[in-house]
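In response to reviewer comment 3 from the previous cycle, which asked for concrete evidence that the modeling workflow produces usable outputs, we include below a single protein chain processed end to end. The sequence was submitted unchanged, and the resulting structure tokens are shown without manual editing.
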Amino acid sequence: MILLRQALLTLLLLTALPAWAKTLAGRVVAIANGGALTLPAASNQQVKVRLHGIDAPESREAWGTRARQALSGMAFQREVRVEVRDTDRYGQTIGRVYAAPVNVNAEMVRRGMAWVYTRSNRDPALALLEVEARAACRAFGLIPVRSGRGLAEAATALIVGDGEV
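The workflow returned the following structure tokens.
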């Protein structure tokens, strides 16, 4: 009976965790690149937010301008909600960004403007979006399959999370 009670309490706590997670909201004031944006915060400060689970080319890299434009089109000067996941070693907030009902992180991958960052992503749906983007050639030149792998091997690596694709 005690074991059942502990299991139920654990389940209750795990389902309630998202409600306790920190959430930010505000109008996006800057887009750094295809994977980072800035929100205003209290006391005239700004919060730089990196999109969780994805990586995009930097502005000066190939496709960097297009990735930045894609993120800008979805989020710049729009009200967004950020579900904070972590803070990186530079103090930047890492989170899942929503503009209206759109999951911006997932949409960047779906459009082929970003790829899954396998070291932090635990969402198999995001990995599948990347596989679909590759298959549809939306990302030709942006998210090439590395190390000579074919699409099937890349898909398996993304979904299972066994290394770089």
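DSSP finds five helices and nine strands in the chain. We consider this sufficient to address the reviewer's concern, and the full set will be provided in the supplementary archive.
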